[in-house]
Design a protein that fits this description.
about 300 residues; mainly alpha; MetI-like fold
Length: about 300
């Protein structure tokens, strides 16, 4: 009875907009310091997203002042666009090849460099260097390596008699995308390695000691302890890898320019062409929102799969 009476006498807290406004008045100094960042976020992110969504319903060119309202014409055009379908296929191919290879090789290197070996810090730095190297520089260097006349790849393949004539790495429609994938894997393995190293070092060593006492070998420890305990790390790398792969642009722009015969034209590169080559801002905004929708769906599917696995 006493607790009930105390609860009845206890003042009820205000909820809703009034409470929020009163807290903002009490903590005005914090919002004052946050205001520059909130202003920049509102102008360059929120407003930009809303304006881009408005552009999807217009036919707006940079060189023409008119912005006629066309309704859903841009969306209908996107569905019927053969080049857009090709860009989706190319992006899916690039993502399906790059993400698993980057994660698998990164995990293997992380397991090896997590062992007590000499110069472990040196090797970790060596594998991580491509990650901090500017992507433009990496793409230019690999473009030279792929050169059919004086590239190192053709030189050593010819020297070892693995090929009889120089390969047109970036000009052959069957080799261009695998060449880009190889470069991207080389550049991204270091990031996966570092994240997996952090995950490996957070696994309690008592689990491995108990497994060894029970007679478990290295493969059993990897299968039943390491991989399950790294599930959150794997999910993070998978989500980030898919998002990054769907936005691939720099290496395509520098190395192949979308060719040959649109075999390396990815979604972001096609958006770039629509916006800054053909000046179709309305259609480019439509393509950008289609890319956002695909990434959103893929992320939701991965999160749901992870929760079911847990």
């Amino acid at each position: 009875m006493t607790s009930t009476a105390d609860a009845a006498r206890r003042p009820t807290r205000k909820r809703g907009p009034r409470r929020t406004l009163s807290r903002m008045r009490r903590e005005w100094s914090a919002y004052l310091f946050l205001s520059p960042g909130l202003l920049l976020f509102s102008v360059f992110t929120v407003f930009a997203l809303l304006f881009a969504f408005y552009l999807t319903f217009t036919e707006w060119s940079i060189i023409q002042p008119e912005r006629p309202f066309v309704g859903l014409d841009n969306y209908s055009r996107m569905i019927e666009d053969e080049r857009f379908r090709r860009s989706v296929i190319n992006t899916a191919y690039y993502t399906g090849a790059t993400v698993p290879l980057t994660m698998g090789i990164g995990l293997l290197i992380a397991i090896l460099l997590n062992q007590p070996i000499r110069a472990r810090g040196f090797f970790r730095t060596l594998y991580f260097l491509p990650v901090v190297t500017p992507f433009v520089v990496v793409a230019i260097i690999w473009k030279w390596l792929y050169n059919s006349d004086y590239g190192l790849f053709n030189y050593y393949l010819l020297k070892t008699h693995l090929i009889t004539e120089p390969l047109l790495w970036l000009s052959d429609k069957d080799l261009a995308m695998p060449a880009v994938v190889l470069m991207s894997v080389w550049s991204g393995v270091g990031f996966s390695m570092v994240i997996y190293l952090a995950g490996l070092q957070s696994i309690p060593q008592e689990l491995y000691e108990a497994a060894r006492i029970d007679g478990a070998g290295a493969w059993s420890q990897l299968r039943h302890i390491t991989i399950p305990m790294l599930a959150p790390t794997t999910l993070f790398l998978m989500v980030m890898g898919i998002i990054g792969s769907f936005q691939v642009f720099t290496q395509i722009f520098i190395m192949t320019n979308g060719g040959p015969v649109d075999r390396t034209t990815t979604m972001v590169f096609y958006i770039y062409e629509a916006a800054f080559k053909f000046y179709e801002m309305g259609y480019a905004s439509t393509l950008a929102y289609a890319l956002f929708a695909m990434l959103f769906v893929f992320t939701l599917i991965q999160l749901r799969m992870y929760r079911r696995a847990e």
